Amino acid sequence: MLRDTMNKNFNPPPTTAAPSAATSPESPHDNQQLQFPPWSACLLIKDNNIILPEWLAYHYTVLPLRRLIVAVDPTSKTDPRYILDQYKSIGMNVTVWTDDDYWVDGAKDYQQRNFRITNETLPAYAQDRLVYRQKIFYHGCLKQLKTENRTWTAVVDADEYIAFNYLDESSSEGPSWCYPKLRFDGHLDERRQ
After folding, report:
1. What pLDDT, in 10s, does the model give residues 99-157?
2. Do 162 and 58 touch, CB atoms closer than 8 A?
3. Using CA atoms, how far apart are residues 127 and 191, in angstroms rounded to an integer?
4. How many alpha carbons lie under 13 Å from residue 186 in its C-beta half-sphere?
5. What gap in Å lies between CA 180 and CA 168, rounded to an integer?
6. Which residues contact 181 (CB under 8 A, 6 or more apart)?
7. Which of 48, 71, 50, 57 is nearest to 15 (CA)?
8. For 15-39, what is each residue's pLDDT tens digit?
9. CB within 10 Å: which end of the chain, N or C, has fewer?
């Protein structure tokens, strides 16, 4: 059952379906309704199809996420494009990158694009390659988004969610860490106004 839900024929349940075309981020209607500037994200994924629809729906609504660059790990057994296409259809700007789009060979063996992980590969090399892949993808993604004049950008994994703590302005007191005209002088336990 789980294997069936992870393959490319998986249809997300209605609770994780993409928003309707009426709220397309590229439509003038959506741009008038946004209270915050649209967000972008750099997302490196490997076999996350089962959690990707909910991640997209949540960040599309909460941030609002409107630009996404996704790098799919070349060893991934699943392809997320059919899920991402649902969000393209409502106007989200989604680009899928492969290693060819961002890879820069480094000095070490595991930093070379043609390096292959096998049963004989030391676990430390496999981990170092993953960290290197993240580093060069995020660098390339952030560089691309800067050329597009994007501002707010999330660099996260598909199992990480950005949450907001809203300040209740109707309350006479804010949280203890939020005081007007607070000056930080190196002492965390003193408030100065």
Report:
1. 999 999 888 887 888 888 888 888 888 899 889 999 999 999 999 999 999 999 999 99
2. no
3. 45
4. 0
5. 14
6. 193
7. 57
8. 333 443 333 344 443 544 666 789 9
9. N
